Amino acid sequence: MMSVEDTFFKLHQLQDTEEVRKLFADHGVKAERYNAYSCAVTVFVKQESTVQMCVTGSHRSIVDGEKFFPHTPALVKFVEKFDAGDYPELIA
Fold it and tell me: Whole-model pTM?
């Protein structure tokens, strides 16, 4: 498992929504739309790191109630598209 910082570093390297989608699909992410506690970013962060709690909004994630991680433009757009129903293969 990675640290949460390393997990977000990995996410921040992704340049577009297709790279985000592919990473999540390759890691078997299944998530819920419009649910900050079980969206695709939250699911990925929790399964790849030692995090106990992660809440994700469209522009940032809050980890363990004290660490804030801003989202890159690619992550912001991915969350918007995921919530709109794109990427059905990632929807639980």
Answer: 0.92
